[in-house]
Design a protein that fits this description.
This protein has one domain: Muramoyl-pentapeptide Carboxypeptidase, domain 2, CATH 3.30.1380.10. It contains 10 helices and 14 strands. By secondary structure, the protein is of the alpha+beta class. About 30% of the residues lie in helices and about 20% in strands. Strands 4-5-7-9 form a 4-stranded mixed β-sheet, with helices on one face. A 4-stranded mixed β-sheet has the order 8-14-12-13. It starts with 5 loop residues before the first helix and ends in a 5-residue tail after the last helix. α7 links the parallel β12 and β13. Bound molecules: zinc ion. The site of zinc ion has 5 residues, from β8.
Length: about 280
Amino acid sequence: MTAFRFATLALALALPALPALAQHGNGWTVASTPAAGAARAIGYYANGCIRGAVALPLEGPGWRVLRPQRNRNWGHPDMVAALRELARRVRAATGKVLLVADIAQPRGGPATGHASHQVGLDADVRFQLAPDGPLDPVLRDEGTELTMVADGKEIDRTRWNGDQLAMLRIAAELPAVDRIFVNPVIKREACRAAGGDRRWLAKVVPWYGHDGHMHVRIRCPADSPDCRPQDPLPADDGCGAALAWWFTSEPFRQHASRGPAKRPEPPAACLALWRR
Ligand SMILES: [Zn+2]
């Protein structure tokens, strides 16, 4: 497989979630309001739900929410606080505002197009920034994601510049952030462009797709004992062999050989939040 296109894989990655959604997803999709109670992220990023979610307002200092009609701007208060802080710092650094796409549904759970985003601790933030003013309604409601990767292989320097590197670094340096998923081409670019202080790169994790947005994942909050953390990342900058692996044929082969995802039973505590 020579013409390995990471961007194409983004779509393939989203597909296994669809059959499972038909079994388990409707209650999560139908619920238009959060489950009452103190905030609790319950379960795992890719199998869980959230109680007491709060909404990121549709606009604020340094951010705009995309496609608000999807009602996916809900998250744990720690997630919303992290996004507010990210937006504040990115605006200070670049003079521009963040475009925030999906966080979670009001009660979390499986959502079309995502394997995770289920516990209110994941958020997609576009690499494209917007001027600090009223958001173009076309961009808000229908805007397609601009890829930062040309031909699936190289960083697109007509779109990627110091602003994108700054937002990635600012996000990685937020203490609440556990890791950030980006396309391997973007990780490679961050490795190239980072200066002497490379600690933040450890949190930037290569993954399929993710060429037009960064997927920001925060740690399990202190108030959520039933939140299951992800295994810790290696402490090094991840710019060596682990990154080189992504530029072999192996990731494509592994992805192609993977069968349809079997969704595990959701945590029992989530069943009470599921709206029938
Ligand atoms: Zn995501």
